[in-house]
Design goal:
Aminopeptidase, two-stranded antiparallel ribbon, 7-stranded mixed beta sheet, UCP029730, 18% strand, single chain
């Protein structure tokens, strides 16, 4: 069994799962990146997944770490990013969901997830999922206590093809509960540009699978939007800069 106590899953010299960029940002936006990293804790090695696979879409949201940092700078916003691979634990899933630690991802087996017992699952939750979600909650609580308005902006990216089907959308806007008005305004602002193929809840729909936005925004009636950008459009610094400019414009306009 792959079973480690939670306090030893991440060694003292390994990075925290939470990276906060521009913590004193003055904008109302709080940017979040559930899948912004693809690290694997040393305690889980051998993980059984090739480095090339960790660099693919199954390992993380390609381009989002750089995009979030650039957008945080442009908006003067705070960006809370999660550093470990979604194959270790998916921080946009309920921690008790079966696919929070997938056995297979887009056809690729994940050997280290094949024999997880309850202690091993709890270790990953305690070391990575819980601290990341707690960091978001703490920042929202601080802002609420200070009377500051907050708009949650979840940044994701998606693979250009899945299971043999091409995905033509360049950016998708996800919404599906709570106060959807802001997300709908972002969608309208993107469509009004006339130069983008925009998906309304495409290539994914926000449903009961998503965790972060529903958990932090819905019950609180907080404004939010979740974006998905196609990963082949986030492969160069110039592309990322272009998307940061687009998002800076539409997120601000939608306010």
């Amino acid at each position: 069994m792959n079973s480690q106590p939670s306090q030893s899953l991440l060694e003292a010299d390994e990075p925290s799962p939470v990276r906060i960029i521009n913590p004193n940002g003055r904008a109302s936006f709080l940017l979040i990146g559930d899948h912004a990293g693809n690290r694997v804790p040393r305690a889980l090695e051998p993980f059984g997944v090739a480095e090339a696979d960790l660099e693919r879409h199954i390992g993380w949201d390609i381009g989002i770490a750089a995009l979030g940092g650039m957008l945080a700078d442009r908006l003067d916003a705070t960006f809370i990013a999660q550093r470990y691979s979604r194959l270790v634990i998916d921080c946009n899933r309920s921690p008790d969901a079966v696919d929070a630690m997938p056995l297979v991802s887009d056809g690729t087996p994940i050997p280290a997830n094949a024999t997880l017992d309850s202690a091993a699952r709890a270790a990953r939750i305690a070391a990575i999922h819980a601290p990341y979600q707690a960091a978001i909650a703490a920042e929202l609580e601080r802002r609420d206590a200070a009377g500051e308005d907050t708009v949650l902006v979840a940044l994701h990216s998606f693979t250009p093809a899945m299971r043999g089907f091409a995905r033509p959308w360049q950016i998708g806007v996800l919404h599906g509960g709570g106060d959807e008005a802001y997300a709908n305004r972002v969608l309208a602002a993107l469509e009004a540009r006339g130069d983008l193929v925009v998906g309304d809840n495409e290539p994914y729909a926000m449903d009961t699978i998503d965790f972060t936005i529903p958990n932090h925004a819905f019950a609180a009636g907080r404004r939010y939007v979740e974006t998905e950008i196609r990963q082949d459009l986030l492969t160069s610094e110039a592309q990322i800069r272009d998307w940061a400019e687009i998002l800076q414009q539409v997120l601000s306009a939608a306010l």
